[in-house]
What does this fold into?
Amino acid sequence: MSKFRTSRTRLVAAAATTVLAALSLTACNDGTGANDEGAAAATSTSPSSDAASGTGADSNSTGSTGSTSSTGSTGSTGSSGGKSTGSTTSGSKPVTGAAASKAPGSAGKPVTCEGSNTRTVAAPLNRPVNHMLLTVTNTGSKTCFLYGYPSVQFTDAQSEPPVIEDSQPQAVVTLEPGQSGYAAISLSATDGSSADGRTAKSLTVYFYGRSMSGNVGAAAHPSLPAEGAYIDDSIKVTYWQQSMSDATNW
It folds into this structure.
């Protein structure tokens, strides 16, 4: 009887062991155990992955910020420095000291017309009779002013002829380079009533300055006709005129 019980107990124990083994095998075959372990592993490693991801993002962000900050600072410094680099960036050439020191327009400052910057021509007129026309042309590179009237001196003259006051223009005659101004000389009386008539072979023309207190610059020496110019004590001159017609009206 006791042997029968012992055998039965062993049989039950063996059956239980078999059942447990079968259950374990079933669990392994359906993959549940492996999946659970993988999930657990993934769960345990995900914080590390996130941390790594976060650190990478921070590093990238820090690098980007640093690069932008550096570039921005450099650009700002280049712009605000006011040096030649800024000029080159804007497409203009750096201004040299010589160019900067030169005053704009100083080369075009007007001067007084006189013999060295003009050419003077003397030509007899048919009308009015006994008259001569003086033409002064600006041969210089600057604008010049013809002040007052010509101070003329014929051969052996002791004084300059007087000016016809009524011929004074409203403004000073201004000659741009290449332009001409005019004045007329009444050489002698048409009726022969004046004294000391004579023939002059040479003529000198002097120029007044703004103050009209004396002659300035070089004199001009226009040629006279081969026969000379007949003059007497009635000789007079007009003021400088901007047009030829205004000069020949007197």
Q: What stands out?
A: The chain has two domains: 2-69, 111-247. Residues 2-69 form one domain. DSSP finds five helices and eleven strands in the chain.
